[in-house]
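Late entry, evening session. Most of the bench is empty. Finally got around to the prediction I had been postponing all week. Sequence below, unchanged from the version circulated by S.P.
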Amino acid sequence: MRQSLSDTLSSSSSASATKPKRRRWTREQLLKNLEILNTLEAPLPPTLPPSPPASRSASPAPGYKRKSESSSDPDSAFSTSKRPRTSSFVDKRHAQPQHSYHPHHAHQPPHSHQPPNAPPPSSSQPPPTSHPHSTFASRQEPEEGEVREEPLVPVQAPSIPAPPKAALDVPIRRPKRGKVPLRHFDNLHDIYHNQGRMLKYSGDARFWSTYPPTHREYRPLADPPPPNSPYHKHGGLIARLELVDALICFTFSIWNRDYGRRACNKETWATIEAFLIWCKQKWQAEEGINDAEKAFIGLIWMIEAFIHGRKLYYTAKDHLDHETNNLTKSMKASISKAADAAEAATGGTAGSLNTKSNGTPIMLPSPASIAPANSANSTPTYRENGTPSSGPNSRQASTAQPPPRPHRMQNGPSPVPFPLLPSHLANSPLPIPSDLMKAMAEVREPIGPALAQDLRDFVVGFHASSWCMSTSQTTLNLPIIMRCFPTTFNRMMHSTLLPTEEHEPDFEDEEGELFWPGQLVNGEGLGWVCLMGKAMIKEFGKAYGYKGIDGVVPKPKPEDAADDASTHRNANSVPSGHSSNQYHSSSSHGHR
């Protein structure tokens, strides 16, 4: 063995010694080869699916060439409609037995494996990427004695998840104040009362400055805004925003004083009525305004409606309920006395209606008194010894029974309301005689002047609140707020506050929770109206650079105001028939 090994080594060394040397290429040959490489096409991008590897020469399966699309071979459709498949554990498991038959499958990428018993491709699904001439991979029918395998469901690629929706503009939940002292509400009253005065003066002054210089109401500002500023371009709109802002501040200040005391001072609320009318006139005079600006007109109507509702509720709660209850009791006692006097005057003809002495009211007759004697369902009439009687005397006795009493029938409303009738007349089924009803209807009860005025004010206030709320809903409602004031809408809809927590939000907060005003019949909700109105002004005013109290026209000192007034009188004479205090009479709201 050693001898043969040494012979082999010696023969190999001699062969290597006699092997000729490789000749080095010249420069011209290298350039010529590089030119051949330049003629090659650009490589395919890496994102395309890899093509199946060519079969090795040692493979038992015959090799084949990929044909062009114009080829007449029907198998060319398999090579032109390939697409990658996602790999799975099931594909790899079923691909392992093929390695002994097709060794080139080991070089395929994982996503190109195809189960051997996959169903044939349909017209909507591309065929598998297995070899078209491989009988093992394409065999569908099992051989004799072989168990048919269930076709595997191809693994589908995971769907791309939809992008997450934009997060809602949920308001910030501020810490709650809880029970606050009365001093807190009084401070808020003073603060926003002063701000209301400043905004009212600024709105009036700015509104007058928007007139043409030749107009009789034109009054220039002492310090006008720059020409390119929003306060100069949108002077009229800024003036109307300041006026409605002043109205909200006045309303909020009065409401704080009432809310802290759980009361309603109608005299104080009367001081705001004239300025409320002035604001409505300035906003309604504008034509061609959009829905957002019309919403402020609805806001003014809503403020007026809730003011009426608050006064109605507390008027009924404080004294009107008690006074009308006493008046009703006194009226019922007088009617009862009049009924007794009328019954006594008729000589007792109406005394049969009186059941005060009887233990029970008059009952209806028995069915035995109205049914015929030979009726099978009638109740028999008994003699004294307990046996029924069936003679003619019994028929006469049955016919002698009084007829049934009819129930009281009323044709229209009664002159005397049913709750005011005496009890024996109210419980009687007989109709009340006309003379008795007339005597009760003529009863009068005197009332004082204060109660009469309160009743009249209550009726007028009810109609006013109903009219104002109906008018407000046409231009201010939840769909309009959602469309024109989305931030304010989200602050109200995604709120955790209760209807009774009007004192919790901060009046200047732009991100806290709010609450949609409820029903005005409970006397509350005016604080929510003011908070919503302030949020609407802040949201709407951002597009116009509205600054609120920071951008008001400062009120001049008394000596400066006197100089301005004299200058204005010299420049513009008052025409005949025009009162100089016309604006004061229409815009003064009596609130200092």
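Two things to note before I forget:
DSSP finds 21 helices and no strands in the chain.
The two ends are 130 Å apart (CA to CA).
Will write this up properly tomorrow.
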